[in-house]
Amino acid sequence: MIKVKRSHELILLIFFLALMTIMSILAPSFLTVNNLLSVTQQMSELGILALGVTVIIITSGIDLSVGSIAGLTTIVIATMYGMTHNLAVAVIAGLVAGILCGAFNGVLIAKIGVPPILATLGTMTFFRGIALVISKGNAISDFPESYYFIGQGYIFDTLPVQTVIFVILALITAFLLSKTPWGRRVYSVGNNPVAAVFSGVKLDKVLLYVYIFGGLMAAISGWIISSRVSTARADLGAVYLMQSIAATVLGGTNIAGGSGTIIGTVIGVSVFAVLGNGLNLMGVSPFAQNLLMGVALILVLLINNMSIIKNKIVLFIKLNFK
Amino acid sequence: MASEYIVNLKHISKTFGGIKALNDVSLDIKRGEVHALVGENGAGKSTLIKVLAGVHFPDDGAEIYIDGERTVIKNPMDAIRKGISVIYQDISLFPNLTIAENICIGNDTVWKKHLNWAEINALAEQALAKVGAKIDPAMLLKDLNLASQQIVAIARAISFNSSLIIMDEPTSSLSAGEVETLYKIIETLRNENIAVLFISHKFDEIYRVASRVTVLRDGRYISSHDLAAVERQELIRLMVGRNVEYLTMKAERISEQQILKVNRLCKEGNFYNISFELRKGEIVGITGLVGSGRSEIAKAIFGLNIPDSGEIILEGQPIVIKSAADAVKHGISYIPENRQLEGLLAKNSVCQNMTLAVLDEICKYGCIDTKKETAIAREYTEKLDVRPRDIDKPVGQLSGGNQQKVVLGKWLATNPKILIADEPTSGVDIGAKIEIHKTLRQLANKGIGVVVISSELPEILAVSDRILIMHRGNIVSAMNKEGATQEAILAKALGA
Ligand SMILES: Nc1ncnc2c1ncn2[C@@H]1O[C@H](COP(=O)(O)OP(=O)(O)OP(=O)(O)O)[C@@H](O)[C@H]1O
Ligand SMILES: [Mg+2]
């Protein structure tokens, strides 16, 4: 169903495989089933967040509030659980909170027309503020044992639950984008909003659903994070904000909108995860890890624009040395 | 003594991803002449001028001479400094800058480290005066209509002391009156000994302004002629490879049944008290100067411009249309006049563009049915002769005329009850134009009501059964096809 048809994804895939090879040579414990499974576990939270961010960036939007939505979700789940002692109700309340946050972004952007970067810059602080007020700034850790399943459990004793969730969500998102009219409209809006409207696309409706989708993905991600760390805290998820945008762009989604794929984003997220995991195994300090990740990002973006750069160099030589 | 020729191009080839858009083309332009460049859609005209303008770098073997001297054009700014300016089809200036800034930006004589606004305004005013334009240089460009923006672009070219100004289909979005203004400006340029290279699909115009012509076909140079020595039919034959002529096609049967009635529609500043009716099987032509409110009415019927008062009656039922999506649901289609801005998703494929308005109809169990989708795209690329016949090509890479056909295809695919076509043949070559006229007539014969908005009077006369003429937001006259003449229409459109 998912085809690697565009050259960018191919280049990225090659880069990724090369990275895997280097890691397995430098860190002998890297290429083991257990370690690879734990890599997928580590990338799922970021990955799910990035799914929503990808769809939003394709519409030429941006969502800076996803980290805050994830954090707010954890607080809502914990608070609701404290009040009802019913986990199902608590989790549903958390996910609904995420959807409402997304809808709030969507209304600001689609109905009122606030530029996405401004709207979500505001709601980033606003949602975090709500979470801080509810939790009074505290971390909450009174969860029942059963809550840990989603972030720490395994299916068949081997497959991390969150990996399975990530794979399913990625497949669903890829399907929505590539096979449904909604997906087509998402791309059309990112490509040329005026022409889309002239073609009968309801711009506001499409955007509203896109931001709701982003909110829901952020909420699911927050749910998993809090389950994994057995804690709810307003700032959980904040670290993933910039990473999710970076992974999306690394995966070939055009920051100006109109193009991008889920498979690209998944590979983009994997690159980050493999780098993090491999460097950890090698005992590289977190500071140097940051540096190397930055280098990797720049490298891939350069490779991605290779043809343009090559043309420029060829033209430069032609003009100056002939 | 300067050379007789201002520009000579020899052996120009340009390959895009293995496809030769230009194949060993040459072009010679004399100092101060108006030279027309003609050819079918996709013949390579725009590509050739982009080579001359430094946008595309030609393949190896190309020779470019300016003023008799061999040279290389490195980039667009280099071309401008060497005296070659281009007025593009979509006028690429800066909408949020003032007229004066637009004219002077990049001009070494005034655009220095420390900008002297007095100097800049003076230069801009001087350039505008040369083209006889009364425009305040302090205005923002975006506040001007397209015609005036074009004049600003020409003024910019003059201020750079250009010796050759290239115009890519400059009249395609101008109304009759504005076209006259442009002709006058071209006259002025000729008197100043500035050469003009003029791309056009309109033969009246070519014979009116140009003295020589070069014909391209399929990326190759065919021939150059003095226009005085070559007949119109001969020129078309050289371009297309066969004979073609405008046909007037009569309606087969206009039913008595009204499909659309517009009743006293008003929108302050756009149009006033507009009433007309459209019957099944009829083609109504609307003409008038650009800005006379033609497109605004079309957009009102299509839900993109909500009127202040009045009613729209579809098949006897008053309807309220609040968005384009509503209009599409009611079976109304609108082919917009500005294909770049309103019509196309440039990065998406031909196929995706053509099915954008029918996504819900090509669905099976909530998914897009790829077979149906490609079938639709194939059908309309075939019917409208989109070249190349590659439905996966990004539309942005098609030539202008072929892009227009894709927009047309998108709306024909909706099987509308009412089709409103705003400048449907803008930028389309003569052969394809006649095909589009035929298609519109076939649709009408199938019982669709068609409204054609056009500034090109021969086109209006060829396709319409009835003609409405607008002036300053009012319908000032309605004529039947019989007895209507270009002169009579023009007089009404100008408000006589
Ligand atoms: N950037 C591009 N990439 C790929 N192909 C291109 C590109 N630009 C033009 N072409 C191709 O080159 C050919 C010539 O196109 P060009 O735009 O020069 O035609 P034209 O003569 O200006 O036609 P029109 O009258 O329709 O404007 C076409 O087949 C077109 O598809
Ligand atoms: Mg062209």
Written account of the structure:
Chain A has 322 residues and is an all-alpha fold. Chain A has one domain: ABC transporter involved in vitamin B12 uptake, BtuC, CATH 1.10.3470. Chain A has a two-stranded antiparallel sheet. Chain A is built from 14 helices and two strands, in the order ααααααββαααααααα. Chain B folds into two domains: 5-240, Rossmann fold; 258-493, Rossmann fold. Chain B has helices spanning 45-52, 76-81, 99-104, 117-130, 146-159, 176-191, 203-209, 232-240, 294-301, 324-329, 339-343, 350-354, 370-383, 400-412, 430-445, 457-463, 486-493, and strands at 5-16, 19-30, 34-38, 63-66, 69-71, 84-87, 164-168, 195-199, 212-217, 220-226, 258-267, 271-279, 283-288, 309-314, 317-319, 332-335, 363-364, 367-368, 418-422, 449-453, 466-471, 474-480. In chain B, the strands form five sheets. Chain B has a six-stranded mixed sheet with strand order 6-7-8-3-9-10, with helices on both faces. Chain B has a six-stranded mixed sheet with strand order 16-19-20-13-21-22, sandwiched between helices. The model of chain B has no long low-confidence stretch (mean pLDDT 89). Bound molecules: adenosine-5'-triphosphate (ATP) and magnesium ion. Adenosine-5'-triphosphate binds at residues 16, 21, 39, 41-47, 397-402, 427, 429 of chain B.
